[in-house]
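Input sequence (211 aa), recorded before submission:
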Amino acid sequence: MKHDSVIFDIDGTLTNSIRPIMVSWNRFLSSSGYPHCLLTKETTASLMGKTMDEWAMAVLPELPLSLARELTEIMEQEENREIYTNGTDLYPYVRETFEELSKTYDLFILSNCGKGYIEAVMAAAGIEPFVKGHLCNGDTGLDKPENLRKMISDYDLKNPVYVGDTDRDRECCETAGVPFIFVSYGFGSVPDAEYRADSLKDLPEIIPQVK
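Predicted structure, token format:
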């Protein structure tokens, strides 16, 4: 059956947002007055793709989770403003690939990120006209497998394929019964991935091969 849609992860797939995340989160943490752990490149990279509760516990481990969540929500909005103002580090061929794929497939973005982050990255990339819908942990409080099932149901997707960069993405797709394409340039490693893209521009050729 021909695929009708392509669902994209965002961090490590469309963008490397370590820079704006570190700038905005560390700026807030340093002025917050709460005990905290500043983000480094290594810790930020290790948290990419994880839920916002996991981010909260990593940077504010001494606080009750309820308070850490509240502060994390503020940092998410600071992060979004940073991206709207100063951009993010997009991977090559994001807009070109979305424009090309949108001629054949409905395109979506699904991530474990905070509320508003997908919209900020879409604006930075100029891909809003090509995206049919998006969903994240910040919108629903659900982890990625549950959100993937929700997206498939909400948009009545018949045969989607998911594009991501980590083994966690692969496991999510396996749980939800969705074929997975691994992009090799991101944050993760999936050595046994059945389908692999070394650049976004490879996707128009790879997607029709996915079973």
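Checked by second reader. The beta strands are 5-8, 15-16, 89-90, 106-111, 131-136, 160-164, 180-183, 196-197.
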